[in-house]
Amino acid sequence: MRKMNLAKCLTGIAVLLVAPLVLTAQQGESHIGKLTGNAGTGKQLYFRYCWGCHGFRGDGNGENWLPTGNYPNGPNLNIQPRNFVAATFKCRSTPTGTLPTDEDVYNSLGRGLTNSNMPSWITLTNQNRADLVAFIKTLSERWKTEKAGAEINVPAEPAPTVQSIQHGKELFTKLECWKCHGPEGRGDGPSASTLTDSNDQPIRPYNFAGGSRFKCGTTNHDLYKIFMTGLDGTPMPSFADVIKPEDAWDLVHYLRTLQVSRKSPELALWEGTKEGAEIVKAQKVRGTPTGSGVNQ
Amino acid sequence: MSHWDSTLLKRGMRNHAFSVLTAILVLTILLVDSRSAAALPIPGTSVRAIPAFARKYGMPCSSCHQAWPMLSPFGQAFKDNGYQLGNERDAPIYQNPAYWPVTFRMTTFWHRENENRAQVDDPTSTTGGQIEGNLTTHGFDWSGLDFHTGGTLAKNVSFYVLPSSDNTGAFHFETVFARLDNVAGTSWLNIKLGKFELDNLLSEKRILTLTNVSGVYTNYHFQPATENNGLNPAFPLFSFGIGDNQDGLEIMGHSKDDRTRYSASILSSNDGTPNLPTSRTYDGFFTFSQAFQVGSLGLQRVGAFDYIGQAPTYFQFTEGNNSGIPGNAAFGLPGTGIGNRRFYRAGLIGQFYIKKYDLTAMYFHSSDDKYLATGTPFNPAYGTLPTGAQNAIWNGALFESHYTPSPQFILIQRVELVRMSQQALPIVPGTPYTPGVSVPSLSFGNENVYTFGGRYYPFISSRAGFAFHGEYAFSHQIGTSPVTGQNLDFSSLLFGFDFAF
Q: What ipTM was assigned to the predicted interfaces of this complex?
């Protein structure tokens, strides 16, 4: 009896001793496909490339960050860099409120975040980006206590049709997307000027007419994920509990037709209808918001 | 105290103070050990580091520069993309209206220069005899001033203007161009027009060394010792270096991640000088390179380049030639240079990263036509080729390595070698070099250049740059001393403050 207790006791001690080591080792790593990122190497890279914006502590308070109002151009120029300590990430494949997967962060580094100062780091090696992800994960307590969320299921995309676009248009109105994004998707809805992000900084809704990349990707698949996971830290919520997957795809197809300065199968289909042609023509006449005639 | 409680500056100073002291000690030993000096040109080649870009995007200089002014792969991609990050915030309309994309850079320093065999008057001669003397000079000095202004005029339209002065304040335009980026929406087509640095993978404008001996790459400017001998006054000066900025039009393309790059340029045959001073012909420059990822080591790049050029050997017309010498090039009418003869500069390059250590290796193969190499007009009315003249051919090698323990500190080492493989003039052993007649050996004019140095950046920011710079360079050339035809050595030692804002 005493021997068994001793064995259990020793086992317990061993577990207590080893577990933190295992957790620490896992926390110092990232796993993207066959790549294993190392936080030590990532730290060196962070202090070469990232600290100017994201700060020494990773809290988004780098020397580049000046709160809105310090520049006349306001939020156009200055979007606060990601706060890695808070570990709230816009671009995820996981449900709202959860941590992203390593691959989500890795993809953000490679893609960059359009309409912000975050460039694409595709020129770094894949290993470098994996190392950076590993280091970023050491910056927040959340990574020590939480696991990344489970990736959402993205069903196969049905082929776009005029009917799916029209249904998406109805959803756009029903879900009140227009309140922020505007009736024509120009980011000029009635609520647009009041929006702030989780840092209490003004934020502009995406302007579909500009035709630029989305924050979190370029494909229909990416667009689907954006409104099914939400952009955490921004007013853009997750619609995962509100619409069915097939409705979500219809919405994707309609949103593509709002990108009037960008060719897409959905836009071609929509312009093939009388209703769509008139809408698109009217939207094109208004030009781009910058007035330069170039897709800024 | 956690690692977060100290700043990068403090960390860097703690980590590298010993390394800096060691570097300074090594350089000091070299100073004591080196022997004697000459009144040589002042260091201060036009070099580039652009805090204006850092200020625009709020990124630290270490993002684009492995150690400024040397670019990192990310900085090279930024440059190749027309000074754009591609985040839809590149156009000037997104900048604070008060933002003005200007940077200046200057260097203040102490330097010591030595030439072992300089041509001097013979104090014992009453007939103006010349001898060779060992000359040394040293003292405090400063470089020329560079005003860099560059960036975007609109999305995918970029520009660069660089007024540059020598250290007396005499300005010229080192770089002037506008560039159409991502033409037709593809990164494979970018068009640049103006005066610009050739698309050299090892950029001389971003060279890390500053001394008189090693402020430029020897292989980029080498011309055989038999050239420009001044024997035939009808022959215009032939000066060329692929390190020189050239006037022309460049088409350049690259993959999105910048792993694959190419460029093709058509250039006026004037070595970057304005107003078409010599001929109306054109040269071509072509490059291609491919980068590979090798595990965790970093990005490895290999490439090739070829410059195919021509230069005039006399002028079709002169104006005001009252010298009595037919076709005197001193009176040549600009733009009428003819009798063009060919030259080329070809090579291979490899850039290899092994974590914090990187090595650039280059091989050069070059040739100048026999008329250019002997200073002979391609016109019997003005002169004939020396007996036995042939094209000058030479090979070169460059090995430059860096150890960069942190973005704040870099150690630099470089070896350059130039070896003649065919002299333009006949070889007559045991006879001193006789211009236009013969050379003493195949190795006549061969050159070795050795450089060691270090740079320490006490702070890294997105606003300005500052570096402590220490460097020693030594060059050795076979048989070219001006009077006795012995080996000619130069050495240069420099300590200074290099700063940009």
A: 0.81
